[in-house]
Amino acid sequence: MFCIFFSQHEDTDLPLVVDQIEEVILASQGLKDVSKTLQDLANFAQANRRTSISLSNSQAAAVKAAFACIICGDPMKEPIFASCCRTILGCSSCVEQWQVSHTYCPKCRGVDFYGVNTQPVVGLDEALAVLHNIIS
Question: Looking at residues 120-136, what average pLDDT do you find?
Fold first, then answer.
């Protein structure tokens, strides 16, 4: 709060005080515009915030290999986890196709691969799609 005290004996300072009050009033009128502009800028920055990731070629290759389907070699789609080797194998369609003609795990060659040894990995598709965009 801005307060100015003066007595009746200081009439000569009255024009200066009035000028100061007018300056405060003008400044306060501009604060609304400044506040709105700052809020607009903050919203813009929040909406356009990006995170940059820098990987060397070998790091990008390692990430790409870690999340590539062991059967088709492409980035995994609807990944499947194998409990025999405790790893994510690859695309659900590729693993299903593999199970039609094979009874062993494509990674560890463990037997009894069909059925209960595989589980879908839920919620990883979106992250893998973003990761694919980063390393491609």
Answer: 78
